[in-house]
Amino acid sequence: MKKLFYLNKRWSNAVAFLIVNLVVCVLLMSGLTATSKTLSYPYLWSAGLLLLLGLMIVAYALTGATLVKYVVFEKDIFTLHFFFFKSKQYRLNQLKQYATAAYGEYRYIMAHSVILEFNDGKRYQIADPIIHNYKQFYEFVKNSNFDCFGYIGRNSWRKKNKPLSKKWVVERDEKELIKAIEKKKGVIILYFYGIITLAMNFALVRYLIF
Fold it and tell me: Which among 21, 123, 132, 165 could disulfide-bond with 8, CB atoms 3.0 to 4.6 Å apart, if both were Cys?
């Protein structure tokens, strides 16, 4: 039986809106500093901002290459689809264990997620804001016979060859995150930051023109 856990379009649109505005903002600031008559070495400052933009793009690319946007489970095969057009397939018996974790760094956008760890040592995070029907995915994993490590909070789970750790775990935190599943509160925050950045862009454009 085929199960599809698909991308939350509202979240992806909010992220795209924020990223585009951030890129435009850095480009406008770079142009503004290059034409400044009060700064010492304006072109050096402009080059520094362009370097910052380049580092941002690399960071987004690296994150998007391992960030799961949807999951297909058919027969005994997991197919994990990432942003930037690549996917990875695993058989059911290759899943070593799973853990639950917090996704996001700040309280108002923090959400529940599942970390899948496979026999090759790779770990992938499936997060509530990104997957539209995340609740179904979480129930599917929880009700299966997969080994569960437990809740790991905001553990540095991405580090290779480092075992998962339950240090500083507060069980109450996970209960709060489970209650908030599929409420998609992070989308509002992303649009809020995007609108602030858009307002900055309008201000920068007006300053450059006038």
Answer: 132
